[in-house]
């Protein structure tokens, strides 16, 4: 029995400034990792929950702390490109090119794992997901922690990924000894995942690095049909993409269609719900929020600023959890670059409840 993980630990939060990193704190955190413990830390995408990726028991603690199904593999984080050679059977030409182009940064590559990566880390798979983040706190911690740090997003399984240390604390208080608070993350949605173990590279999770950016470096890339809206009938290839995810407590419904019709539809639905005594939340773009007169209305940012939309998404979903609304209506944000990544998260958060405004 995992008695250790059931006993409550005191969760410490240490402030770390990415511009002037206190190495004393990083060494303390690194020691916890090397001794098989867990530390949450900021990356440029979302906060991660770290453990020694080469220590099967440490990896198991991650699953316990998150309440994550054990068949859902973890991403191994490294702090030098050459460390990739230590955990995969072969660094393919595509992997070399992509690492040069996008590391350190928000790209995760899947390659065939070598023997020293335990199956506990890869959820039983013969492949391993690897990423070198660009956040300097993350890089320093990975180095001090032994060089190979498994880190899923530091949320309870099913909830939105944390973009602030407070979000991590909400989910992990009493479960882990230390959170490094490096402030708000930059990107706000998780890394792009590309599978390089098949003949043709396949994107398993859309993210900040878009298909266009990838194909400029390695030519044609496919997108796993399972990650697009439901109805594709396909099971996603990344085991984690099949689970309910990022879901707010309230019922989230996406409303798609022409802007005027979307506004009218959301206003109509909100009116009915409010008459029923329900609390309603609305997520709109900066350009349209003034059209919503009822409910708790939140702007996710200007439509042309898609980085801002990605950055705000999870924070807004968590704010609605705190406010206790019963139902949330959201506009859809199919922006040109990051739209696929943003909508992938929103579809999942909504459990694929999508309405067409006619
Ligand atoms: O931005 C990120 O990638 C963040 C930060 C902390 O680095 N991490 C993150 O990890 O999002 P996680 O565990 O929340 O999501 C990892 C995803 C899951 O959907 C998992 O199924 C998939 O990656 N994955 C991991 N290893 C895989 C493998 N060998 N084959 C297929 N999918 C894999
Ligand atoms: Mg996650």
Q: In words, what does this structure look like?
A:
By secondary structure, this protein is α/β, with parallel strands linked by helices. The chain is built from ten helices and 16 strands. It has helices spanning 3-6, 23-34, 56-66, 93-102, 136-144, 165-172, 211-218, 259-275, 306-323, 339-349; strands at 12-15, 39-41, 48-52, 75-77, 107-112, 127-131, 149-150, 178-181, 192-195, 202-205, 222-223, 251-256, 280-284, 296-299, 327-331, 354-356. Helix 7 links the parallel strand 10 and strand 11. The chain is globular. The termini are far apart. The model has no long low-confidence stretch (mean pLDDT 94). It binds threonylcarbamoyladenylate and magnesium ion.
